[in-house]
Amino acid sequence: MSTSELPCVYIYSCCDDDPLKTIKLMRNEENVEISNNEGNILSNHWTIDCKYYTADINLCTSISLNELSDQFVHNINAIIILFNIDESNIIETMNKCLPIVKRSQAEVLILLSEKNIDGHIMTNNVFEWCRKNYFELIVLEEIADEMDTTGIERVKQALYAHHWPNLKAKCQITNPSTKSIIEDSVINSQLSGGLSDLKMDTEQEAELDSNLFTEMFEGDFNFFKTIDKVRKLKEQISAMPDEERKDAAEKTLTECWKAFFGDDVDL
User: What is the pTM of this model?
Assistant: First the structure.
């Protein structure tokens, strides 16, 4: 597979934040090799190497959303939109990215802010935009609590949990009985991914479909299929206000444990 055919993460800035800075943070390197593969598209080759698989992908960005070829858009598996809540007309600017989201059918959708947005007049509008468009809101300077992963590490987790089309599996998991599998596939993955198949109103108490958990774990256990289903539990939760998000995440984790060990498990 040539470099131009690799699946990619497309990073677009709706503000003055530099997407190349985000790439450096993701790679944890100050000097990264940037290539100009197609027109105005800049890219950096990245080999994801995690416990379960390896995958070669491109981290890409461009100044303009125009003139992105169909082939490039087809290869987009994840979209990261950088925004500054202090920018004027920020919602309108973010809306301009939605045609690319729909064209690409990217499964990992992240709205990334460098600074905390709590208490801003536009905060509720941003939460609603994320809920409506199935984006996960991540803040770089947010401080993680005991159960959460935040900032650039959360971005990387979401990408690690994605089922890249060219991934090379390191192992085949067939038995879900060990505690380490649960921790790696559920807790460490932070329930990452999209919930576009679920409908949950953020104004109501979170109610999770327990049938989904039964479907996830019945029969032969396959890590990647399970993660795809677990991913459908995270995006909607992550778009909730903080006080509702934690409660929904706890309920989700409880259901996962019950799916593994039965309703009588002592939690």
Answer: 0.66
